[in-house]
Write a structure and sequence with these properties.
The chain is mainly beta and 216 residues long. It has two domains: 2-33; 47-212, Porin (Beta Barrel), CATH 2.40.160. 13% of the residues lie in helices and 65% in strands. Strand 1 (47-65) and strand 2 form a beta hairpin. It is elongated. The termini are far apart.
């Protein structure tokens, strides 16, 4: 009987303590007593649009006449282009670029005058350092429209073009990039009644791009 009395007394003493423990557990389990962890939101600006000005160093026109003689005309000029691109991964960028340039001059009493509109799909491999400096190399393929006059003989052609390039991209801030690069581009060939003209160029270019995110 004495043992039962001691046991009952112990239960009576322990009951309030258990009730307090249960209340504490319930308050911890209350939604208002704690906050759910949320991953930080990112602001990746992976899509960009921009403009480029390119300086053609010795853009070359090689005109091969049907009877076998070849005339080579070289000129230094400027061109302009627009582009839109996207960072597919941390190392690969894909961009579409459309550009206009031209070449004209006189060689051996023959007048040459050409307009070139090229549309290129470029794939660049890049590496970002410190979030601000980004060297890259790339290749491009596309289609160019060539319109030309040789000795008052007109011709036009759409031909396959290809390019190789290397450059450095500088992030001025999270919205604007500055781009410097060097590119060799083969614009293709154009047929005339009297011969075939082939045009290629080595270009130095500078450009700017605005970065944004279309998938917020």
């Amino acid at each position: 009987m004495k043992k039962i009395s001691v046991l009952l007394l112990s239960i009576l003493i322990a009951t309030p303590a258990l009730a307090n423990y249960d209340d504490e557990y319930d308050s911890y389990d209350d939604e208002e007593s704690y906050t759910t962890y949320e991953a930080p939101k990112t602001d990746n600006r992976d899509t960009y649009v921009g403009l480029r000005i390119h300086r053609n160093e010795h853009i070359a026109l090689s005109y091969e006449r049907k009877h076998g003689n070849t005339t080579t005309l070289r000129d230094n000029n400027f061109g302009i282009g627009a582009l839109i691109g996207n960072r597919l991964t941390d190392y690969v960028k894909l961009e579409f670029e459309t550009m206009y340039t031209g070449i004209s001059g006189t060689k051996r009493t023959t007048d040459f005058d050409y307009d070139i509109w090229s549309n290129m799909l470029n794939v660049n491999l890049y590496k970002n350092y410190g979030g601000a400096v980004e060297p890259y190399v790339g290749i491009g393929v596309g289609l160019s429209g060539l319109w030309g006059d040789v000795a008052h003989t007109h011709g036009k052609e759409f031909d396959l073009s290809f390019a190789v390039m290397a450059g450095v991209n500088f992030a001025l801030n999270k919205y604007v990039d500055l781009n410097l690069g060097l590119r060799y581009i083969d614009y293709g060939e154009i047929e005339h009644k009297t011969g075939t003209a082939k045009i290629d160029a080595t270009e130095i270019y500078i450009g700017g791009a605005y970065k944004f995110n279309i998938f917020k």
